[in-house]
Write a structure and sequence with these properties.
- The chain has nine helices and six strands, in the order αβααβαβαβααββαα.
- The protein starts with a helix and ends with a helix.
- It is of the alpha/beta class.
- The radius of gyration is 19 Å and the shape is globular.
- α3 (34-55) crosses α8.
- Strands 3-4-2-1-5-6 form a six-stranded parallel beta sheet, with helices on both faces.
- α5 links the parallel β3 (101-105) and β4 (133-140).
C-alpha cells in the first residue's frame, strides 16, 4: 500500500520542518558541479510543497540557506541566489493556484537587493492565501535568533518596560522569528547526516526527528508521506510515561 493511503489525516503534524541536504553530493555523484544539484533540488521542493498541501499540512518550513552558507565558494553562493530569484518568479503562479502563503525567517537583509525585493514581492502577492504556509529559512541561524530574542528582552528590562521575573517560555518564544506559527512536530533531514545544523533549536524541543539516506534531489512527496507515517507510529510522551499518555 502506498504511504499516502496509510496516513491518518486526523493526526497530521501541523508543522513539518525539513533540512534539505545533499544537493552537492548528488551532483558530484553524477560528475556535475554542485550548482547542478541545487537546480534539481528545486524539483523536490515543488513536489514536497504540493504533497504537503495535498494532505493538509498547515506549515512547512524549509532550511534553504543558513547563515553559515555565506562562507561557501562565491560562485556557489551567487548561483544559489540567482536560482532563488528565478525559482520565486517561476513558482509564484503555482503558489497562487495552490493557495500557498509564502513566508520567510532569517536575516534576509543579508540577501542581494534583487533577491530580497523579489522575495518580499512574492510574500506580498501570496499574503491573502489561506492554505499551506511555506516558510523559507534564509540566511538563518538559530543561535543568532535566540541571542537576538534574549537581547530584545534584556533591553526591555533595562528600560523598565519589563521585569526579569516576568520572562517565561511563552514570552521568549514570542520574540523568535516563528512567533506566529506552532513549533514543528516533525523534523526531517535528508542525505544520511544526523545533525540539526543550527536549525530551529528552540522550536524543535519536542519534535520527532526523522532521518533518511536519500539525497534531497531524490526526495519526493511519497518520501514525505513515508516520514509522516513513521511519525504517526510513534508515541509522543512529552515527559510523561506511556501509562499516563494512554
Amino acid at each position: 500500500m502506498a504511504f499516502r493511503e496509510q496516513i491518518d489525516t486526523t493526526r497530521l503534524p501541523k508543522h513539518v520542518a525539513i533540512i534539505m541536504d545533499g544537493n552537492g553530493r548528488w551532483a558530484k555523484g553524477k560528475g556535475k558541479l554542485r550548482v547542478f544539484g541545487h537546480h534539481n533540488g528545486v524539483l523536490s521542493v515543488r513536489d514536497v510543497v504540493e504533497g504537503a498541501g495535498e494532505i493538509g499540512v498547515k506549515y512547512l518550513t524549509l532550511y534553504t540557506f543558513s547563515a553559515e552558507n555565506w562562507n561557501r565558494p562565491k560562485y556557489e553562493v551567487t548561483a544559489i541566489m540567482e536560482l532563488l530569484i528565478s525559482t520565486i518568479n517561476k513558482e509564484i503562479k503555482k503558489l497562487m493556484e495552490n493557495n500557498v502563503r509564502l513566508n520567510t525567517i532569517g536575516d534576509i537583509e543579508m540577501l542581494p537587493k534583487k533577491c530580497h525585493d523579489e522575495l518580499l514581492s512574492a510574500i506580498r502577492q501570496t499574503s491573502g492565501n489561506t492554505g499551506l504556509v511555506l516558510t523559507l529559512a534564509l540566511s538563518y541561524s538559530s543561535r543568532r535568533e535566540i541571542l537576538n530574542a534574549a537581547q530584545a528582552l534584556a533591553r526591555k528590562v533595562e528600560s523598565g518596560e519589563l521585569k526579569a521575573a516576568d520572562i517565561d517560555e511563552d514570552m521568549f518564544a514570542a520574540n523568535l522569528h516563528t512567533a506566529d506559527m506552532p513549533d514543528p512536530e516533525l523534523l526531517i533531514r535528508t542525505s544520511g547526516e544526523y545533525r540539526i545544523s543550527n536549525y530551529l533549536l528552540w522550536q524543535i524541543a519536542y519534535a520527532e526527528l526523522y532521518f533518511t539516506d536519500k539525497l534531497w534531489p531524490d526526495f519526493r512527496r511519497e518520501d514525505l508521506f513515508e516520514a509522516i507515517v513513521d511519525y504517526q507510529g510513534r508515541e509522543r510522551r512529552f515527559g510523561l510515561t506511556s501509562e499516563q499518555v494512554n
